[in-house]
Amino acid sequence: MAQETLNHIKELTEKVNQLLRERGSQEETEDPHVTTRIPVTDLTAYPELIEALPSIEEDFFRNSSNNLTESILNLE
Description:
Layout lengths: L1 H27 L18 H6 L7 H14 L3
């Protein structure tokens, strides 16, 4: 019984190793000059949130960088 179990484990291990080798060869065929990236997602605020916080529609990064530039250059 124990020998049968060991043989079964050995067969399964060989099959897993074969599948891993096949997957490894598939990955090598990909173009090294192509990079997969996460898709961009645009978010919109709920109308209720815009009513509660009207400033949420402002471009935070653009406004903060302008304010920072003005404060550094004393353009107020």
